Amino acid sequence: MRNPFLYFIFLVLPLSGLAQEKGGMSCSLSKQSTFARNARYAEMAYPGDDKIDIGYYKLNLDISYAQRYLKGEATISLKANSTISGCFLDLKNTLKVDSIKLGTKKLTYNQETAKVNITFDKSYTQNQVLTLIIYYQGNPVASSFGSFTFGSHATSPIVWTLSEPYGAPDWFPCKDTPADKADSSDVWVTMPKEFVSVSNGTLTKTLDNTNGTRTYQWKNHYPIAHYLISIAATNYTEYKNYYKYSATDSMVVTHYIYPENFSANVRNQLDQTPFMLKLFSDKYGQYPFIKEKYGHAQCGFGGGMEHQTCSSMGNFESSLVAHELAHQWFGDKITCKSWEHIWLNEGFATFSEAVYAEAVGGKNAYNTTMNSNMVFARRAAGSLFVKNINSENEIFGFNRSYAKGSVVLHMLRGIVGDEKFFKTLQNYLVSSVAYNSATTEDFQKVAEQTTGLNLDYFFKEWIYGESYPRYSYGWTTATAADGSSTVTLKVTQTKNTNPEYFSMPVDIKIITSQGETTTSVFIDKATQDIEIPNIKGTINQVVFDPENKVLKEATEVKISLTGKEPVSQLIDWQISPNPTTSEVLIDFTLKQNTSAQISVFDVAGRKVKELPEEKLSAASYKRTIKIDDLPVGNYIVRIGFGKYSLAKVLVVR
C-alpha cells in the first residue's frame, strides 16, 4: 500500500529520480503519514530508566484478532547500574499490568500513563542481574507509525507491529531508548492456526494447541534494539531464496507474502535479494546476522521497516528492498544511540540505494540517484543532527535524515576516495560500537583513523551546521613565457549562518584544445583567488565540481579585468620552482601593512605545512617551505588575510 502523497510525487517527478524516491522516500513519507494519523496517542518516555541495563527480552504473546486483545508475559533480564531498590519500565496504560514477579516473589508496582514503577523486594547493588516477569493484558492502541496494528488485506486479517521510534511501549514493557540493546530476545506468538506468525531470528518450534491455536517460537541470538523486535501474522505464503556466502555455506532468505500478491513479478523482485546480500556483504562486511536469516514480511505499512532479520514491507520495489536490507548493517548491527543521530541509520541506508544502483547500472545510475538526493537535500531545514526529537516528522523528514544524510556520505566518498571510504564503513562496522549503538562522533573517529585525515571541519559543518555553500566563480587566463597558460580562478562564497563559510575541497576541470586536466582546490573563505599554472593548449572551459561531489549551488560569472582588483592593491606574489621536488620559495610584495599567513594544503583540504602568522609592513619578502617529505601530487600554497586569501597550485614531483 503506497501513501497517496507519495503516489502524487511519483507522477510529477522525473523518471530519472524514481527509483530513489520509491526506496528511502517511500520509507520516510509512509512513516510520517502513519504518525500523523496516530499522533494523538503519542506520549514519549524517552530515554527510559538509566538506572538499569537491559540484557534480555522474552515476549510470550496470546493475541485475539477477533477481540483486538493481547495477553502478554514479558520476561526481562536487567542489570543494576548502581545500587537500586526499584526501577521503571515504559508501558502504555491501555495495557493493564496484572502482576510482576521476581523469582517466586510478587513485587509491588504502580502504573502511570506511560510507565510502570516497580519496587523490588530489597536493594540490589551495581552489576547485579535481576529477571522480572510482567503479566499484562488489554487492547493495544496504535501510535507513532502503527506500533501494534490489527488490519486486513483483501478479506484476510493481519496483525503487525512497527515500533520505531516510540511505539514499543504500546505492546510490551521495555526500556524505551535505542541506546540500550538487549543481548538477545525471544518472541512467542499464539494465534489461531490460520495465522503464520513471523518474528526476529530463527523459528525454533511450532506448537499446535488443543484450543485450535498455534504457537510460533522465535529466537534471536544477537544484540537487538527494543524497537526492532517485531511480529507479523496473517495467512502468508512462504517463498525462499538462499544466499550462498561460501563454497559450502548458505543462509535462508524467507519471504512471507500475501497470497493474492504472490505473482511472477513479485517473485522476480524478491529473487534480487541474494544479489543485494552479496553486494552489501562485499562492500560493508558479511551480513551481520548470518547464523540466522534474512527475509521480508508483507504488511499494511506503505514503505518498509528494517526489523532485525525480517524487514516489514509494503511493496518490493528494488530500491526499497535495498534500503531496508542495508539497514541490517546500518540501523540494526549499529543503531543510532539517540534519535538526534538518526542519519546514521537513514542516511546510510539511502546511500546504499545508490550503491545498489551503481552495481546494476554503473556510475551513471549512481550519479542519477545522488543528483536526485541532492535536489531534496537542498530543501532540508535545520541541521542533520535532529534537535527536536519530540516530532517524528522532524526525525524522519526525507529531505534531511535520508537525502542529506546520503549526500554527506557521497561527499565523504569524494574527499577520501573509494578505497578509504568503503574501508571506513567496514572498520566502523567492526569497531567498538558493532552490535551496539553509536553517535556521529563514533563514526567520525573511525573515519579519521582509517583515512589519516582530520575531518572535524567536515562533520561540524555538515552534521551540526545548516544549509550548504553557495558559490559564484569566474576565471581569467594569462600566457606564460613558455607558451603555457595560467588560469586564475576567483571564487566567492555567500555568507551562511552556521558555518559562516563552508570548508570543502572542490575539483576544477580545465578543458583545453589538447585535452582535460582536473585539480582539487580547498575553498573555505569568503573570497579566494587561485592560480592554476602550466595549462597546455587553448582554454575552452573551466568546470566547477564537474562530478557534482559537493552539495552546493554554483554560478559562473564573467570576469572583466579593470586593473583595480583587490589583489593588485594588496600583493604581488610568485612561487618557484613549480613543479618542485624539495622546497618552494614564496616571493611576495605587500602594498600595505597587514597580517599574513602562508599555508600548504593537500587536495583533501588537510593543512600539511604552515608558517607562523606575521604582522608585516608594506615591503618585499621571501619565505621558503621544505616540501621534500610530501608525497608526489598537487598542493595548494595559500596566503591568507583574514576572510580573504590567494592561492596557487603547486606541483610536487
TrEMBL record:
<keyword id="KW-0378">Hydrolase</keyword>
<keyword id="KW-0482">Metalloprotease</keyword>
<keyword id="KW-0645">Protease</keyword>
<keyword id="KW-0862">Zinc</keyword>
<dbReference type="GO" id="GO:0006508">
    <property type="term" value="P:proteolysis"/>
</dbReference>
<dbReference type="InterPro" id="IPR027268">
    <property type="entry name" value="Peptidase_M4/M1_CTD_sf"/>
</dbReference>
<protein>
    <recommendedName>
        <fullName>Aminopeptidase N</fullName>
        <ecNumber>3.4.11.2</ecNumber>
    </recommendedName>
</protein>
<keyword id="KW-0031">Aminopeptidase</keyword>
<dbReference type="GO" id="GO:0070006">
    <property type="term" value="F:metalloaminopeptidase activity"/>
</dbReference>
<feature type="domain" description="Secretion system C-terminal sorting">
    <location>
        <begin position="575"/>
        <end position="650"/>
    </location>
</feature>
<comment type="similarity">
    <text>Belongs to the peptidase M1 family.</text>
</comment>
<dbReference type="Pfam" id="PF18962">
    <property type="entry name" value="Por_Secre_tail"/>
</dbReference>
<dbReference type="GO" id="GO:0016020">
    <property type="term" value="C:membrane"/>
</dbReference>
<dbReference type="InterPro" id="IPR026444">
    <property type="entry name" value="Secre_tail"/>
</dbReference>
<dbReference type="Pfam" id="PF01433">
    <property type="entry name" value="Peptidase_M1"/>
</dbReference>
<dbReference type="GO" id="GO:0042277">
    <property type="term" value="F:peptide binding"/>
</dbReference>
<dbReference type="GO" id="GO:0005615">
    <property type="term" value="C:extracellular space"/>
</dbReference>
<dbReference type="InterPro" id="IPR001930">
    <property type="entry name" value="Peptidase_M1"/>
</dbReference>
<dbReference type="Pfam" id="PF17900">
    <property type="entry name" value="Peptidase_M1_N"/>
</dbReference>
<dbReference type="GO" id="GO:0016285">
    <property type="term" value="F:alanyl aminopeptidase activity"/>
</dbReference>
<dbReference type="InterPro" id="IPR014782">
    <property type="entry name" value="Peptidase_M1_dom"/>
</dbReference>
<dbReference type="GO" id="GO:0043171">
    <property type="term" value="P:peptide catabolic process"/>
</dbReference>
<dbReference type="InterPro" id="IPR042097">
    <property type="entry name" value="Aminopeptidase_N-like_N_sf"/>
</dbReference>
<feature type="domain" description="Aminopeptidase N-like N-terminal">
    <location>
        <begin position="56"/>
        <end position="228"/>
    </location>
</feature>
<dbReference type="InterPro" id="IPR045357">
    <property type="entry name" value="Aminopeptidase_N-like_N"/>
</dbReference>
<keyword id="KW-0479">Metal-binding</keyword>
<dbReference type="InterPro" id="IPR050344">
    <property type="entry name" value="Peptidase_M1_aminopeptidases"/>
</dbReference>
<feature type="domain" description="Peptidase M1 membrane alanine aminopeptidase">
    <location>
        <begin position="318"/>
        <end position="462"/>
    </location>
</feature>
<dbReference type="GO" id="GO:0008270">
    <property type="term" value="F:zinc ion binding"/>
</dbReference>
<dbReference type="GO" id="GO:0005737">
    <property type="term" value="C:cytoplasm"/>
</dbReference>
